[in-house]
Structure formats: C-alpha cells, structure tokens
Amino acid sequence: MSHTSLSVAVIGAGMAGTTHANAWRQVGTVYDLGLPKIRLAAIADAYEPFAKDAAERYGYEKAVTDWRDIADDPSIDIVSIVVGNALHREIAEALIRAGKHVLCEKPLADTLESARAMAEAERAAGTVTAVGFTYRRNAAIAEIAKLVREGHLGEINHFEGRYWCDYGVDPNTPMAWRYSGPMGSGALGDVGSHLIDTAELICGPLVSVSGGAMMTSIKQRPVAKGHVTRGTALDTYAVELAEVTNDDVATFTGHFASGAVGTFSCSRVAWNMPNAMMLDVLGTKGRASWDLARCGEIKLDDVNSPAGLGGARQVLVNPTFPYFARGSSMAFGGVGLTQIEQFTYQAYAFLQQVAGVTEGALPPCATFADGYREMLIADAVATSAANGGAAVDLTPFNR
Amino acid sequence: MSHTSLSVAVIGAGMAGTTHANAWRQVGTVYDLGLPKIRLAAIADAYEPFAKDAAERYGYEKAVTDWRDIADDPSIDIVSIVVGNALHREIAEALIRAGKHVLCEKPLADTLESARAMAEAERAAGTVTAVGFTYRRNAAIAEIAKLVREGHLGEINHFEGRYWCDYGVDPNTPMAWRYSGPMGSGALGDVGSHLIDTAELICGPLVSVSGGAMMTSIKQRPVAKGHVTRGTALDTYAVELAEVTNDDVATFTGHFASGAVGTFSCSRVAWNMPNAMMLDVLGTKGRASWDLARCGEIKLDDVNSPAGLGGARQVLVNPTFPYFARGSSMAFGGVGLTQIEQFTYQAYAFLQQVAGVTEGALPPCATFADGYREMLIADAVATSAANGGAAVDLTPFNR
Amino acid sequence: MSHTSLSVAVIGAGMAGTTHANAWRQVGTVYDLGLPKIRLAAIADAYEPFAKDAAERYGYEKAVTDWRDIADDPSIDIVSIVVGNALHREIAEALIRAGKHVLCEKPLADTLESARAMAEAERAAGTVTAVGFTYRRNAAIAEIAKLVREGHLGEINHFEGRYWCDYGVDPNTPMAWRYSGPMGSGALGDVGSHLIDTAELICGPLVSVSGGAMMTSIKQRPVAKGHVTRGTALDTYAVELAEVTNDDVATFTGHFASGAVGTFSCSRVAWNMPNAMMLDVLGTKGRASWDLARCGEIKLDDVNSPAGLGGARQVLVNPTFPYFARGSSMAFGGVGLTQIEQFTYQAYAFLQQVAGVTEGALPPCATFADGYREMLIADAVATSAANGGAAVDLTPFNR
Amino acid sequence: MSHTSLSVAVIGAGMAGTTHANAWRQVGTVYDLGLPKIRLAAIADAYEPFAKDAAERYGYEKAVTDWRDIADDPSIDIVSIVVGNALHREIAEALIRAGKHVLCEKPLADTLESARAMAEAERAAGTVTAVGFTYRRNAAIAEIAKLVREGHLGEINHFEGRYWCDYGVDPNTPMAWRYSGPMGSGALGDVGSHLIDTAELICGPLVSVSGGAMMTSIKQRPVAKGHVTRGTALDTYAVELAEVTNDDVATFTGHFASGAVGTFSCSRVAWNMPNAMMLDVLGTKGRASWDLARCGEIKLDDVNSPAGLGGARQVLVNPTFPYFARGSSMAFGGVGLTQIEQFTYQAYAFLQQVAGVTEGALPPCATFADGYREMLIADAVATSAANGGAAVDLTPFNR
Fold it and tell me: Does C146 touch chain A (CB under 8 A)?
C-alpha cells in the first residue's frame, strides 16, 4: 500500500453510501490536508445501476457489484461500509484481513455477537477501524463537548436528548429490514444510537439505564414488490401485510458516572419531523442547547453577561470551533451548515488517523469498540423495556 | 349561606396567595358570569403585614392572621388555601367541616397519608373541593387536550413533558422547607406535579412509571435568618449550612393505558430558565407542542395542508378555544396570555361548580382525588428512583 | 379636589376603554403606590349597556351615558378618554376646563387642527395631561431605550420598526370610522403612531421622513347594520358597499437627528398576524430586538461574551428592568407579560405625576405636545406619500 | 466547441470563486443532468497561490494567472467571472467575443455605463450570458415566487426585505475596494442587489423608488498592508486612515407595478449578524416569510387550516419544491440546506440553457439585462438618497 496517495472505495451506493462517496471526494476542498492525495477508486453496490450511477456522479474510477472485488483489490487503502447492518461483520472482517482501513456505518452490526466479533477483529487489526458516529463531527456538538470538558457549564446535572424522525409515520410506507428486527433495533437502534454516542461524548460514560419503554405505533406494513429505498415512492404494494416487530418510539433514563441524569427519547413516527435531533445540557454554571434544524448554532447560557442582562445566546458556528471548515469556500458564520458536511469532517479525521498525523490533529473517530459499547447500551435499554423498565447496570461494559 | 352573592377568602398572602386573591377579584372582568355576585371577604396570613397589604391591594374587606377566623366566619362561602403543603390537611378538613367550598393549591398535601385523608374528606363533603392544577385552565393546553380527545392527532404514541425552573440554581439561595423533604418532594413534587396532571389530562391515565431518577445538584444551602420568601433577596446568611434532602432534577418514563409512552423531566436548577414548561404530544395523524414561554400559542401539525406545504403551524390562542377570555378587554389573539390568567379561569370554573351551572359549563376543576392520585404517581416515581429505576405499577390507583 | 384619595373615571367602554378601566383598578395590586387611594368613580359610554356592564365588571360606582356628567362631577380627579378620535378634542378641552387630569388615548385627535388645539389647551392647563402611548411602559422597550441612552449599543445606525395587524384583512369586515378618514389615518394613524413614538423614545427625534407609501388593499367594505365593535361577528350586512379611503399598508423612511436611519412599515391587512409589533435597534457596539409576540423578552447582542461565543441573548424581563411589576403576584421572569399590563404601568406613572412624586419616579407620560408631534410626523408621511415619496422636513416641529 | 462535453473555467479564486468552482464540480452529484459531461478545465487568479490551491482542491486541470489565457483557450465553453466588479466588463466582453458562455457574479459591473455596455454585448452575443443572482435558486424563495405567481397568497399588498450583514461592523476591518465607491455601491450594491432582484422575482417589476436613505456608520478605516481578503485576520495595519465613501446602511421604499408597496433595508454593519437575509410577502389570502438562518424552510400562512386552528406553518423544503436537489445524497427534509448549494443549482440551470434543454427545464438564469436593471434600480435609490428621499421613476427602465 503506497502512502504517496490513498485510494478509497465505498461499499453501498444508497443514500448514505453516496454521502460517504461525496465526503471522500470533498474532503480536500474544505481542509488543508497536509496529507497524501486521495484517489477515488471504486464504488460497490449489489444493484448495478446504483453502483454505476454513483461512480459516475462522484468521479470514482470503477463500479462493481460484488464487495469482494474491493477487498481483493490491493490498490485500495480505505473502505467505507454503508450497507445493511447484517452485512457489516462479514465485510469488515474480510477487509481487515485484506489490510484495509475501514470506516463502517452505524450501528456497528445487527447483533451483539457480530459487534463483539468486530471489536475483537479491531484489536487484532493493523489498520484504522472506525464507526460512523458523524455527530461527533458536528461543529456545534463538538464545541458543546469541549465546553463541558473545560468546565464552562459547571457540573452537569441533566442531559436531555431527543431524536425524532418521521420516516415511519405513514402506515403505507412498506415493510423493510428496518421494521423487522427485535425490540431495540428500530428507532433506538437507528437514531437513538446517535443520542447514546453523543451523550457519552458530552457527559462521559453512562453507568446504568432504566425506564426503557418501547412501543410500536404502526403494527403492520404492506409488503412492497421490487426494489425499494427509503424515500422512494412506490407504485405498487402487495396485498400482503407483515408485522412490524421493533420499536417506533423508545424512551429511557440514563445515569452518568458523573452523577448527572439523562432523559432520552427517539421516534421514527414523529409526525412531519423529518430529522429532528435536539440536545440540552444543563450544569451548575450554564447550559447549552442544540437543534439539528439549526445545525450551525448553539444556544448557550453562562455567567458572561452584565448583571440583569443574561440569557441564552444564539452562538453561530465560527472559526474558533472544532471542525469549522477552515479551508472551505464561504467559510463564515451565517451561511449555514448541514448534516451532510459532518461526513466530510469525519473523512478528514479518519484520513489523519490513517496518515498518522498527531500534531494538531482532530480527535480520532469512534472505534468498533465504541460502536459495540453503544450497542450494549441500546441492548440494555431493550432489556430494561422487556422488564417493565427495570434498571440495567452498565458498569461491566465500562473500560 | 346565601347564593345571591358568594363570599370569598384566601388563606396565604405570599406570591401564589395574592395570585388567588387577584383571580377571585378579576374573574368577573373576563367572563360573563351569569353567577351570583362575588364578595371579596378576607385574606389570612400568619405574617400580618402580608395579610394587610394583600387585603388592601386586592380590595378584600378584612385581613386576619389566623385561618380559623375564616373557617369560623359563617358569611364566607369559598376559600383558597395557599400555604405550605404541610398545613393543607388541617385547614382543608376544618373548612369542609365548616361547610366551605375549598380550592387548595397543589401539591395536595405534604404526605400521602394526609392527601388520602383529604380525598376521603372530599367524598364526605357536601361542598365543592378542588386542587389548583392551573394548567388545566391554560387555553392552549385545554385545546390540545380537546384535539386529542376528538382524535384530531390520531392515536397518541408519545408524550414528552419538561418543566425546568432555576429557582434553586444559585447555591446561595437559602435553605427552605422546599429543600428539606424526602426525594420526590423537590422538583418532582413542585413542578413535576403539573406535568403529571397535564399528561393525564391530555393522554389519559398512566398505568406504570419506571426509570425514576433523581439527583441533588446543590447538596448544601445556607440557613437564612429571619423571614424569607422565594425571590426575596437576603441581607444576611447564617454561617451554618444545611443538607438538601430532595431532588433538584428528576426524570422518568411513563406508560399510558392507551399504549403511548411518556418521557418526563423536571428541574429546579436549570440555568437561567425561570419557568420553562414544554410539552410535545405526538400521534399518528399529527402533533402539538406548547411552551410556556409562548403561553398563547400552540405549534400544531396535522393533515390540513396542501400537498407538500404542510408543517407545524403557529396557532394563536383565539376565541374558539376553551378558556378563551371572552369578556375580557383586548380579547383578541396576539395580545398575549400569561400564567397568571390561568388562575382567573380556574376561579371561573370553580364558581360555575359552586353555582351548579351545567349547561355550557367549563370542565370542572381537578378534585382532591385527582390531587391524591398525582401524589401517588409522584411517590411511585420516587419509589422507582429509590430502586434504581424499577417499574412501579399504577393500576391499583386507577379508578 | 381632595388628595387623600384620587377619583377616576373612564369615558368609553369599548375594548380599549375597559382596558383603561382595568388599569386604574389594578394599579394598586402591582405597585407600592405610596400614593393617595384610588376611588373608581364612573364609566361613561353613549351605548348604555356597555357603560353598565363595564362599571359592574370593573367595580366603578356608576355608569353614565353622557361624558358631560363626568366633566361636571366635581368629585372626579382623573379621566381617561377612550372614544373615537373625532371626539377627543371636545371632551379633553371640557375636562381641562373642569380641572381634571386627563389621559387621552392615541392618536391625540382626528385632525392636526384639533391636536394643535389640544396641545395649546395643555400649555394652559393646571392639571396633568397625557396621551396613551402605552409602549413607553413596556418593560422591554423601556430597557432598550435605557440601553441606548447609556451608550450600551454604541452609536445607533439603523432602527427598523414593523407593526403589522390583521383586523382589516377580511374584506367582509364591515365599514367603520377607522376605514373612512384621509390617507395617513388608517394603518399609519392606528398602529404606525406607536412605531413613531417608540422610535423617538429609543433613538431621539426624527428630522425628516421620506419614501412615504400607502396602499389600500381592500377598496370597498360592506356597510353594517346596527351597533358594531371591532372583533364582533356580524349577523347581517347591508347590500351596500362603501369606499375605504385610507391606508391599509404604509411604509416610510426616517432620518434621526443622530444620523441613524429608520425603516418603518405598518399594516392592518397582514394575514393572520393579529397584533405583531417588531423592533430592531442596531448600533456600533450591539443590537437589541423586540417582538410583541414575546412581550417579556429582548434579543440583545453586545460585547459581553467570551471570544467566539457571542450572539444574541434571549434576555427575560426581570426585576432590574424599568416598569418591572415589583409588587405584583408571581413577579419573576418567565411567567409572561402582556400588552394589557402596559396600561397598568401607564396608570402608575400618571398617578405619580398627579401626586407630584418625583423621587425615584418613573419617566412621565407622553404629553399632548408629544401626541401632536406624532400626528405631525404621520401627516408628514402622508404628505410624502401624496408626493410620490418626496422628503418632508420635520425640523420646524422640533422643539 | 464540442457538446459531447462542456469545459468550464472559473476566473477568480477567492471565497466566491471557489464556491463557483465547487458548484461546477458538484452539479452532477445532485442532478440527473441529461447533459453533456462537465470537464473542469481551468481556474485563473492574479494571485498565483490562490489559483493553484483552488485548481488542486476542486480538481481543475490547470491554474493560470491571466484570465486572457482562458479567453484564448478554444477548448473552454463556459466561464464564471468572480473578480472585482471593476473588471467584469472587460473580461465579459472578451469572453463573449471568444464565443464563451458567461456566468458573471453580481453586481454586474462597477458603473452603469459598463453594465449598459455588457447588456448590449449580451444582445449581440450568440452564447448564454447570465448574472449570479443565486437567491433565485434558493428552493424556498423559488417556492414563494411560485406561490405568488399561482395566486396562492392572493394579491400581494406588502413586501418587506432585509439583508443585514456585519462584515463592516468592526472599525478595524481595513479599507478595501468595497468601502470606496460612490453612495449606492456599499451595502446597497453588495447585499441590497440581492433584495432588489428577489423582490422583483417574487412581486414583479418595481415602478418607482423613494425614501432612499444611506448612512456611513464607520467613517474611516485603516489602510492595510499586503494582500487582504474578506475574513482574513490582519497582522499589521498602516497608521494611515482612509475615508469610507459609500453606504454602510441603506433603506428605501419601492412601488411595484401590481400596486404592492415594498420596504427595503440593508446593512453591512449589523452587529453580529454575519449574513441575515429576511423576506416577508403579505397578500390578501396569505403570507410567506423566509430567513436565511433557516434556509430550508418557509413560514407559510394561508386558508388551508381548520377553522380556528390556522397560523403560520413551518414548511420544510421538500421534493415538491423547485430546485429541490432530487439526485443528491440525503435528499430529504430536515437535513438542512445552505447558501452554498444555491450556486450548484444555479450551475444546473445555466447548463440546461447552454445545452438547449427546454422540456421541464428550470427557469433560466438572470441575464445581463436583468443585472443592468438591478443596477439602474440601485442607482435610482442612490439618486433618491442624494435628493433627500425624493421619488425616482423606474418606468423608463421597464421593458
């Protein structure tokens, strides 16, 4: 593997896959890399039209339909895995064996067993392995984490996280793999996983969860004919209905090692809220709030105001923030940020790790171990829910 | 007791007491009563300057320092009890024995035992008894409850309630009775009680709670010298510190009989949030949100929009709403509403009950039984918290 | 006239009249008066049911149908005039002659000639005379004015004021006196008058206006049968239509003596915005914004933030603010304020003037001279509009 | 010129130049082009390090320091001009003579004379020429324009546009070409130009302006040494100060041919508002508002709500909207949009014009004639300001 350039491939060319493809392509436009040149080598998708279309749009050299062609290509250094969770383990293990650096989408796997195996494979690997908790790369969230770390908000007493989506609110949205796993693999596994990782990033480790509650609001969905992707309008549905077996809504309580308490809720059936993530972090000297709908700002309240004139400030993401896109075009406050850019910043941190940059480097990506831990916590929530909300101790998982 | 007029007294002349005093005085200005005339008879407060000042400001005929003078006055029909929780039972029982109609502030009592006794006294009483859950009289909340009842939002799958205050965030705020009860009598008992009552008003009965978590952020407070009221600046503090024994922050999960799940959190140490109550109600056909900071509006999202142009509407409280102040001055949208007005609307509903108005009457006030039930639920949350978040069944409390 | 108590009467018992009636009644509940006792003496309205209803609701001793009965009553000290603009002059002059203190609603009169005469009558009067620019008593606006005065925002370079209402947006809202005056007496005269007074309160005197533009959106309205008040639903309309002759929308540019420029707009046909007043004040060291929909808060941005963490703060009205209701029930931030309370604070300032309180007194009310000046400015805007937007010099009006 | 592929070059590699460079590169990732392939040919900048850096980051084949090399290169089809206004004319004329398609940044030129000449050159050109009014490509603004065109908001009676920036608020920001033109070339020429074009896009042509007012808040600025770009921190300033000769703040009134009135204001000294553009469009059947800080949403109010439950809706940009990025990754509501994306959508519309696509094509770009018109209107505002706000007739400019 040559390090005068780094060759990148993406496995999976759906919505999130193309977002990875875009990130590898765009990373050099927003950062002064000081890094080997990026070569966009290949995109794989079992559905060939997707693979070809993505490769052409994003300027990758070739499109393949079998991910093994990527694992077998000795010229490829870095691979994003962006396919169904059930395929993560097999692909990741093969890629690691082939000596690739691997960035795997979250959640890490479809089962705890697979996730554990991946974390083990990581320990044995000689390459960089990471899981795609992209909110770690949101400039506002990273700033909140930094403020908490530096004591700017005092001792945190309460964290509240909500991640509410609506992709499942229409009962005519057809059955898909995401509606058929066990409790905990629905809303919690999909969007709650981001909340859990973000909560620990900001407030440190959780030591127990309780009050797990999950409900399935839409209990049956039509079985679709043919190839379906999220967001695609369907022409035809089968008459057949299938049972939804996992959670549309989940909520739980968390206890942090610091003594803070956490309130968590997530939903995939929140009416007309396409993608609403909201965080509140409250401490003895201030508070910070963030809303994905206003991705480029923090509401920050602290002691830095004249007497009688304090209040939550609308702080716009700016060049003093971590992950502010220093080299990008129009890099000033008020232009806006989007969720998509988080993937680009993630790509940059990953590349720094691969290239061994340490001086002034961004914090490294979440590891497979982090991804496994997040799944253990989600599983603990599901266990709590299955036991009427009983507490589940997380300390065995803490390193 | 004559019903050509109704004589009213208020016991307690602190902040909330004067709010009651004001409500009885103002009710006739905002409603077409169709009711007996209101006579403002007396205000009682153990601290005489408070009693006298309130009586003079709000136009009550006399000020007394002993509440028994009110119980003993045969000309008085209606009495508000607005004193420390520990005094509610004794006063309420005496007033009921004296044949008074009683409106008691929340929470109903300081102990479950007292609350139960008051609910029993209520069953035996020949008069109207009620507990002051004033948010039932908030026009926006009442409208949300009506929308849910009428199915406008479909089946509710998720309720989220937050009530965050900051009255305890300053560690120099001195020790007071509200910081010294058992776990569950702090933030949960004070502001969480409103969330619980409001949640059941909107979503129907809870059947279990779990994930109870409580934390004390400020563990010691200075003991104040002399007479102190909430919001009063202190000149002098004792050197002595006392232990805070109840909850600054509380969070829990609730299960509604309907199948919906509830996420609840409350705080009295939320930095610089003097009085923030926020509700989200999510269903299969819409959602409604409300924020006390914008007391006169609902964010409402439903199916009533042209294709592609839907979204949460900023619905201003208007004359079609329950509790809209029909007879008031400047009674049009956009002028604003405040929490204070809820007390006036509560007074009106209570007066209708006393006068036996049924046709077109507002929903009746919460009863002592409701207040007892709310305390049982709060106690169940405290039990859950004491057991690491274990579930507590509420069905024994359901009627 | 005895000053051991002050007797008050209100002429006009419509929506705004009852708001005055309420203010005189409530002023003692929110302030420590240190003043003579208020006696609620009389309410007058030509339409007897209104007068009687208001007197009963607000506790005034008598209701009369002829305002002259009030002018002639030697026991009355203070009178609010809250009737159609065309009646202001005659009533005010009579009251002044009778030695009354007079608080007249805005705009001061229906014609410049009448307003000038009233300002002259004021100079000759031995009593207190004032015009009801209630936004001077809004705690947030008063604070912004104070911040500007103290240089907190640096030199102001731009003021933007918008007052958008919707009371005229429905073409079926019937013809009324407010739709039939000359250009300048519509939206500009009604709500624009508040903007003009508030702008000068905050930024100092205007020296010219230009860019006056007025448009009539709804050109004809049905003539109603019978007694109609704003907000009243009509059962029947005449077939007849009448021409609307004044402005539904008005906008103009102002130049302040300070060098700042002002952008002003007002509307009575702003779709579904019942009562939206919004101000932005921008200077070289900060900015402040206010929105009537969030009556109790200021958005304030200045230099008091840590580097990189600045932004507009949501400052809640609090006890350090002018006109904060110190003696009121529930007087802490976050409870909310409404437009109605401005009338109460206005009543307090007026009473202080009548009683001759100077130490620690609130700023005095706007005078008839101020009211005349505001009308001269509005007239200058109308002149500008009639001349295609040509500039009109205001310096002849400056004292 | 071959149309089996289209070769693109960008002249100017500053902040806006790289945004163009990015747009040409990314256009194929968000749209199904149905177009010739894009070849990224060259980037020119007089400052060679900028040119080289941009070419490398954005994948352009070569970097040049003289724009004439691009004009002279017969393989180049399309050229973006993104340099100082004073250079636009010479470059555009040369490019047109060389048979290039030209997309020129706004404002079209530094003088009316040059702009007029460019509009003439356009009429003679056989290629596509356009000016970069990118807000025409904002999905929310385009939707508002469509709603107005279709009568969804009734007859528009009022348009209010504000564009407030802060890039000039710091008096230490050094002198630059943008601070040294005549009145009208400052805030008005820079950001006001967007307001004017957007206003006419939504409401149709203006027929007159009046009330022009301009003020210079920061009257002198330090002269910087060496190469300076907007946003760059300076190490050293000269002792010398230079006079600022144009407008920091501008405001004016506009009359639309439709009868609607317009209120306009713009600023480059709006404290801590990096880039705030806000629009309100009010009509007889609804209103729409937009704020660049929430680039991906419209506040829309209309008749489509149940009785009593109407209000402004928060409509998220979605696939039914013009310019919704249909082919992009993560193309669902709630992910966010930024100003940067408008450049990509502009590139797409321009490419459709070049390729002669008509069926289902997006509205074409603004022409040089449109850019000249916008400058005539801005000049009319400056003329109005120079004459104390006198009206200036625009009908001679209307086609």
Answer: no
